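User: Sequence recovery, please. Input:
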């Protein structure tokens, strides 16, 4: 009986490790300079359609990244910054800062009157690039370099790690 109990625990643990369920996770008080591990998880492990929101602890200001893939060149991160009531006074400044930094972006219109468009940065290939973009936007939003944000990770599932033997 003990053997079956231990075997069942091992099987459940392996299933949990290889098939991370969809869900939401929140981490509080992460310094803006230390977002890399969260971005790394999103890019390397989370499935397409998962996203990260880095939200200022003292206001409604946030930066959002999502996981995307084109099927040819692989996975990448994308940034979606809304032209919403809370962000309207920052929107053009964020666009200017990204342009000055050499980041290509596009405006994507919506059918919403409240949020008429998004500033979108596609094909963010590295975690370092995503970290730099996040820091740049937070500076434009008026956050100090030592500010802390809450991290919300919404995953649609996880991919097997390279070399895990699963296909």
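Assistant: Recovered sequence (167 residues):
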């Amino acid at each position: 009986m003990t053997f079956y109990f231990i075997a069942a625990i091992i099987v459940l643990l392996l299933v949990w490790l290889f098939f991370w369920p969809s869900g939401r996770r929140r981490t509080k008080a992460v310094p803006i300079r230390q977002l890399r591990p969260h971005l790394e998880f999103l890019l390397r492990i989370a499935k397409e359609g998962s996203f990260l929101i880095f939200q200022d602890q003292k206001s409604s200001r946030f930066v959002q990244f999502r996981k995307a893939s084109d099927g040819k060149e692989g996975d990448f991160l994308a940034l979606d910054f809304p032209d919403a009531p809370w962000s309207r006074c920052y929107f053009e400044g964020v666009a200017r800062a990204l342009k000055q930094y050499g980041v290509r972006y596009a405006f994507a219109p919506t059918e919403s009157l409240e949020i008429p468009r998004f500033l979108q940065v596609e094909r963010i290939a590295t975690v370092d690039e995503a970290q730099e973009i996040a820091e740049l936007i937070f500076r434009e939003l008026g956050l100090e370099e030592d500010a802390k944000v809450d991290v919300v990770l919404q995953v649609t599932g996880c991919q097997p790690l390279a070399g895990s033997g699963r296909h």
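Confidence is low (pLDDT under 50) at residues 11-20.
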